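in:
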């Protein structure tokens, strides 16, 4: 298992300037607003965070319904792009250790396609538990190892791609992990593709 510093190098670079464009920005923005009605019961008028925000599309969409919207990512370029493009939300470049030292917490935390990239899953969960207020919600998406469309020969699955993806989950293992850190999974969302999408409440 590579350590987190080695994995982070895949998602960061040394360039100081933001990229002039973000891959598939148009479709990313459309998808962010399509998802927004699903988030309303948990994010409307609340303090929200996109944890692993990339180009800031979901944080921007949330800014239209939330009391406040923030985005955090380890990529300086992604954060610079989001900060230049979307002024309604606040963005910061921070890692797990830095986040554990902050006092900020949120009513609703969105973390999409992040957990499978993390070397130390316990550090990720400690950070998530630190960021979500008691009674607040975390919305998680990640590849679903238990989905019926996953190939019988697991190495034929495109999501089995170390060191890009180093963690894999099913509904059962997600329940075990999140319960361990004080969360209760309250809903799994159906997905035609092998994607695990769920809402967890911090107890």
């Amino acid at each position: 298992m590579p350590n987190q510093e080695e994995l982070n190098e895949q998602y960061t670079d040394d360039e100081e300037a933001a990229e002039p464009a973000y891959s598939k920005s148009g479709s990313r923005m459309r998808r962010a607003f399509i998802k927004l009605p699903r988030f309303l019961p948990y994010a409307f008028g609340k303090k929200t965070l996109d944890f692993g925000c990339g180009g800031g599309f979901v944080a921007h969409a949330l800014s239209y319904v939330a009391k406040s919207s923030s985005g955090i990512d380890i990529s300086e370029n992604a954060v610079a792009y989001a900060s230049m493009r979307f002024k309604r939300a606040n963005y910061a470049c921070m890692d797990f250790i830095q986040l554990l030292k902050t006092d900020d917490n949120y009513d609703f935390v969105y973390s999409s396609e992040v957990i499978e990239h993390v070397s130390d899953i316990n550090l990720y969960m400690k950070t998530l538990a630190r960021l979500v207020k008691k009674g607040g919600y975390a919305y998680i998406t990640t590849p679903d190892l238990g989905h019926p469309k996953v190939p019988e020969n697991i190495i034929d699955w495109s999501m089995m791609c170390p060191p890009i993806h180093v963690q894999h989950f099913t509904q059962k293992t997600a329940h075990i992990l999140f319960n361990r850190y004080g969360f209760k999974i309250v809903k799994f969302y159906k997905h035609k593709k092998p994607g695990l999408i769920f809402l967890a409440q911090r107890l």
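note: Residues 25-43 form the longest helix (19 residues).
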